[in-house]
Design a protein that fits this description.
The protein is an alpha/beta fold and 324 residues long. It has a seven-stranded mixed sheet with strand order 6-5-4-7-10-13-14, sandwiched between helices. A four-stranded mixed sheet has the order 11-8-9-12, covered by helices on one side. A three-stranded antiparallel sheet has the order 1-2-3. Helix 4 runs antiparallel to helix 5 and helix 5 packs across helix 6. It is globular, with a radius of gyration of 19 Å. The structure holds 5-S-methyl-1-O-phosphono-5-thio-D-ribulose.
């Protein structure tokens, strides 16, 4: 499933806001169009945003690349992958290298990283396991395989049968619209549940592990990921279920000491009140708070799995040793 296509010098994205009902590719033609595509979640998921931002800046930087970079970076502040990719393109520009080659390298490297993350993740699972996931950290959110869903997709290729429970993931329903869609397409057994059902599934003994992606890992192992994930981590700790965070090594940001230092994107209230309803589900004057991410405390995380291996607590020490 190609969420981002670069063909004969032209950039296309699969519009994820139209899934699962319509599979429509849109050609990107301007920096403003790319900014909007990120902002509106037509392309989303931390690694995919990075890949897309690399191509966007390489193709449409105009005559002021620093300003264009700053503009793109402001589209979604939480995930580190966006600035990671645009910083690489800027560096390539300053050293006179081909920007498109750099964007393609970022894309190719992500495929390789996702494959390795998936292999490490799969080594922790068993055939027949029940897996809970939140949001979407599969191929739509990355390049291939995914991070949080990667072990499941790779496992399917190797003959494993998993039973996946996908939280619907309020308010933007990435679990319902995207995770269940892509796992169905892969022939992986998936059951969609509401976010508030996770505790019941765990209590019933149906969940052997929780797998999620990540948007930024702080130096102490606190992790920003999709809103609601920290609640799932608290439940997993309560029931003694391993909670695994999966992402490329570049998601670990040693310049961010703890989760308190991560900037959390806040989104429009209409995503809660009107977006997926025929009629508004709250009065126009009702106040809403709509943060896109929350921070999972490092004490709730069993292991952080990157393309370089599996890191266990204490994260402050082990992340540095592991990634140096
Ligand atoms: O707001 P989104 O849909 O971009 O959020 C996606 C997530 O939170 C993912 O879990 C995260 O980006 C990791 S993607 C592999």
């Amino acid at each position: 499933m190609d969420n981002i296509k670069f063909e004969s010098g032209r950039l296309f994205i699969l519009d994820q806001t139209r899934l699962p009902n319509e599979e429509i590719y849109i050609e990107m033609k301007s920096l403003e169009g790319c900014f909007e595509a990120i902002k509106k979640l037509m392309v989303r998921g931390a690694p995919a945003i990075g890949i897309f931002a690399g191509y966007s800046l390489a193709l449409f930087h105009g005559n002021n690349i620093e300003k264009a970079k700053e503009y793109l970076d402001s589209a979604r502040p939480t995930a580190v992958n966006l600035t990671y990719a645009t910083t690489r393109i800027l560096k390539a520009y300053k050293s006179g290298k081909s920007l498109i080659d750099e964007a393609i390298a970022i894309h190719d490297e992500d495929i390789e990283m996702c494959r390795k993350i998936s292999e490490y993740g799969l080594s922790l699972l068993h055939d027949g396991d029940g897996i809970l996931t939140h949001c979407n950290a599969g191929e739509l959110a990355t390049s291939k395989y995914g991070t949080g869903l990667g072990p499941l997709i790779l496992g399917k290729e190797k003959g494993y049968d998993f039973h996946v429970f996908s939280d619907e993931t309020r308010p933007l329903l990435q679990g319902a619209r995207l995770t269940s869609y892509e796992l169905e397409k892969r022939g992986i057994d998936v059951t969609l549940i509401c976010d508030n059902m996770a505790s019941l599934m765990m209590k019933k003994g149906l969940i052997n592990a929780v797998l999620v992606g990540c948007d930024r890992v702080a130096a102490n192992g606190d992790v920003a990921n999709k809103i609601g994930t920290s609640g799932v981590a608290i439940l997993a700790k309560h029931y003694g279920i391993p909670f695994y965070v999966l992402g490329p090594y570049s998601t670990v940001d040693f310049d961010t000491p703890t989760g308190d230092d991560i900037v959390i994107e806040e989104r429009d209230a209409n995503e809660i009140k009107t977006m997926f309803y025929e009629k508004p589900m709250a009065l126009p004057e009702t106040k809403c708070f709509n943060p896109a991410f929350d921070v999972t405390d490092h004490s709730l995380i069993t292991a952080i799995i990157t393309d370089k291996g599996i890191v266990y607590p204490p994260f402050e020490k082990n992340l540095r040793e592991h990634l140096k």
